[in-house]
Write a structure and sequence with these properties.
By secondary structure, this protein is of the alpha+beta class. It contains four helices and ten strands. It has helices at 2-8, 58-63, 115-134, 157-165; strands at residues 15-21, 28-30, 36-44, 47-48, 65-67, 75-79, 84-89, 92-98, 139-143, 148-151. Strand 3 (36-44) and strand 4 (47-48) form a beta hairpin. The protein starts with a helix and ends in a 5-residue tail after the last helix.
Amino acid sequence: SDSIQTYIDRKLCLQTYEEHINGTGNRLINTKNYPITLINEIQINCQVLEVTDYELTSDDATRGQIYRKCGWPYKTTSIGLNNDRGQQLRNIRLNYDAGYVLPADPQIEPRTLPYGLEGIVKTIISNQFTQISNGVGNLKRLTEGALTYEWIGGLTDNQLSVLNSYSSKI
């Protein structure tokens, strides 16, 4: 599952996360990890927001988005003689719980990991076990006459599509 988490660029297990992000000026901000199960605290420019200052609908939580009617302000440094906009500052601090209850978490019910992701993990483990058992690594076929090597491909296009749908990369 570590390789899957690396591929989709986010964690899957339910835990507390802290992020420092740039404001966007838009009404929605995206968290790196989702689904969001609880917002512990949000700060803008070191000021703690009241719970009534933002909204978290079920759909937004599933996508890892937090809504704020007046928008999420951005802040930049000023540079030069004309006070031109410089580097954007990470002026929003998020502390939230997000992720899935994994099948390996027996103390927490019910499990929430989507079956598509669980199936891909099982497929990868099965493929690796088969390769190790056969002692071939990723080699599928070796022909000596005219020297042909055929390697086992990674995931199928369908499996990659499922993984990409859970990716934090926008």
